[in-house]
């Protein structure tokens, strides 16, 4: 699954630089995650780095974007090949 940022986000700016896929960016009100670029850090780290640094725990799995580890790895391969 891709991750998502909930409206509990406090715009603390710590998640964006941690994303190895550049999937996190400032939105209109809170940070947002591009599901096309989010691999939950598969291919880079064992754990999603944004979740590790988030002080308010507002980055859950997106229930509308179910993806297997294999799908996330394939997305990682496509992103890193570009």
UniProtKB/TrEMBL annotation:
MF (Gene Ontology): 4 iron, 4 sulfur cluster binding; metal ion binding
GO cellular component: cytoplasm
Keyword Acetylation: no
Keywords: 4Fe-4S, Electron transport, Iron, Iron-sulfur, Metal-binding, Repeat, Transport
Pfam families, A to Z: Fer4_7
Organism of derivation: Salinicola corii
Name under which the protein is recorded: YfhL family 4Fe-4S dicluster ferredoxin
Transmembrane segments: none
Residue intervals of the 4Fe-4S ferredoxin-type domain: 1-29, 31-64
PROSITE patterns: 4FE4S_FER_1, 4FE4S_FER_2
Taxon lineage: Bacteria, Pseudomonadati, Pseudomonadota, Gammaproteobacteria, Oceanospirillales
Keyword Iron-sulfur in annotation: yes
């Amino acid at each position: 699954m891709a991750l998502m940022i909930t409206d509990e986000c406090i715009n603390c700016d710590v998640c964006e630089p941690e994303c190895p896929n550049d999937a996190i960016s400032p939105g209109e009100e809170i940070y947002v995650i591009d599901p096309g670029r989010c691999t939950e850090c598969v291919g880079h780290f064992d754990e999603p780095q944004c979740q590790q640094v988030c002080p308010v725990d507002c980055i859950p799995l997106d229930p509308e974007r179910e993806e297997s580890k294999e799908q996330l790895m394939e997305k990682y391969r496509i992103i890193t090949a570009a």
